[in-house]
Amino acid sequence: MIAFEVNDMTCGHCASTITKAVKQTDRDAAVAVDLGNKRVQIESSAADEAEFKAAIEEAGYTPVKAAAVPASSGKAGGSCCGS
User: Fold this and answer.
1) Residues 6 or more apart from 35 whose CB is under 8 A from it?
2) What domain range is 40 assigned to?
3) Within a domain: residue 73?
4) Are 46 and 22 in contact (CB under 8 A)?
5) How distant is the alpha carbon of residue 56 from its chain centre?
6) What is the CATH classification number for the domain harbouring 26?
7) What is the mean pLDDT of residues 44-50?
């Protein structure tokens, strides 16, 4: 999984633009956008991190590599700090 923090992604239009840029790089990529946390996670076997970063930059945004976070397990409560 490839993950980016995109701090200049501020609205649904931004999220849509980034998703389209990723899909133009790999139409079969799975894209998960978390607008609240300004994160984009991508699963792809056809393109690499550098290609997706370039596509997002070309769309006008500033992606920064981030650690991939696994999908929620559905459990209530708890976080990395235990709160």
Assistant:
1) 9, 11, 12, 14, 15
2) 2-66
3) no
4) no
5) 10
6) 3.30.70.100
7) 95
Which residue spans within the chain are E strands per DSSP? 2-5, 30-34, 39-43, 64-66
- pLDDT given for residue 67 in this prediction: 87
Q: Which residue has the tokens 């894209």?
A: 31
Residue 71's pLDDT band (boundaries 50, 70, 90)? Answer: low
The more confident residue out of 15 and 71 is: 15
Residue 43 maps to a domain? yes
Q: How far apart are the C-alpha atoms of 54 and 42, rounded to whole Å?
A: 14
Residue 72's CB is within 10 A of a number of other CB atoms, namely 6
Claim: this prediction has a pTM higher than 0.85: no
| Inter-residue contact 8 to 14 (CB < 8 Å) | yes
Number of domains in the chain: 1
